[in-house]
Amino acid sequence: MKKIVSGMRPTGKLHLGHYLGVIKNWLKLQDEHDCYFFVADWHALTNKYKNTEDLKENIKQMIIDWLACGIDPKKATLFVQSGVKQHSELALLFSMITPKSWLELNPSYKDLKFNLFYQYLRDFLLGKQVKINQAPPPESFDEALEKATGKQKNKIFEEYLREAFHRAFYNQKGINFEYLKEVLIKFGINKKIVEEAIDNLEKGDVGKDIDTLGFLAYPVLQAADILIYKAEGVPVGEDQLPHIELTREIARRFNNLYDEIFPEPEAILTEAAKLPGIDGRKMSKSYNNAIYLSDSEEEVNKKTMQMKTDPQRIRRTDPGNPDVCIVYDYHKIFTKDENLLKDIDQKCRTAEIGCTDCKKILAENLNKFLEPIRDKRKEIEKDYEKYEKFFIEGTLRCREIAESNMKEVRKAMRLYEI
Predict the structure, then answer these.
(1) Is 252 part of any domain?
(2) For residue range 276-334, what is the model confidence (pLDDT) as tens digits?
(3) DSSP category for residue 137
(4) Is 248 found in the same domain as 314?
(5) Which of 176, 234, 339, 378 could cross-link 168 (Cys pair, CB 3.0–4.6 Å)?
(6) Distance (Å, rounded) from C-alpha 410 to C-alpha 192?
């Protein structure tokens, strides 16, 4: 049995992506290990420091969702990060020994900035109703475009736009806006639209919310969250591996400088089913494309009917391709009857079933999955203070553990104690 630490930022009610990416794994871990699951409210401030009016309500909704999904306070220790002040003390001490270059080279920091800028540019162009298949992209994509027809061009555009933005973003002197402007105009996009997009990127607020010390140093706080409990394992996705390696580096550096106090935690890779939002993009509250664990039956039905399907299937009589259909992506996870799943696949390809009927089946299965979670949420909401006590008790327990370990840290660093 390992000591496991994992947390989630409180951003409001959880959606199906959160369940499949995190909660489902926690449910398994809590039965096998000594788990500490925490509400990472300090981490929520790293890029949302201006918007704290909903923070307490978001924490409440996250607590309700965790318990409604089956996270069990009898099996795992549940707590709120800001209730254990020792996290911040250890983060401060770690910041004294962490080279700035480690943080600046953290790929997650650079990648998040890249994604913020790129997503803004992409959404801006689509918001202006730019026809993304109107002109052949330059250079290496010319040949691919000649072979492509119709909606295939859309994919080529997105691939090349991301490649072009990557080249512009990772320029040695910063973002090469001139290069980016030139590429977009070559795509055939109106010059005024291009100039407006680039001007907003260059002079607007995009990305400014993460140009803070708190965001740059958040991996140090993350290391403190993990090491203050002497965790041996941290469940993460593959994209988060650099965070855990940095935590291991900080632990090694501390142990070498002072005393062997901290273990080097291992990353526990989790395989999460990738579930897109109802519009095909990443499921996100900010895109308004998520199905929430708290959604009513009516809301689930409505959102399911709004889902994008195979773009090539225009008429009811057209054969479809489940391999490129968002609805079928959901079926593969929530339609448990294998025979029904195969039947939907076959009938879609032969146009024996229409998209509306396919969506109705999916909506029914989604509601079957969500019904027990909804019922438990209602029970918790009626007597929230009773359930909140689990987190208060867990937080108090964590304070004791954290303080005991901090005494070792202070002694090793020869800090003054009263």
Answers:
(1) yes
(2) 999 888 888 877 899 999 999 999 999 999 998 988 888 888 999 999 999 999 999 99
(3) P
(4) no
(5) 176
(6) 60
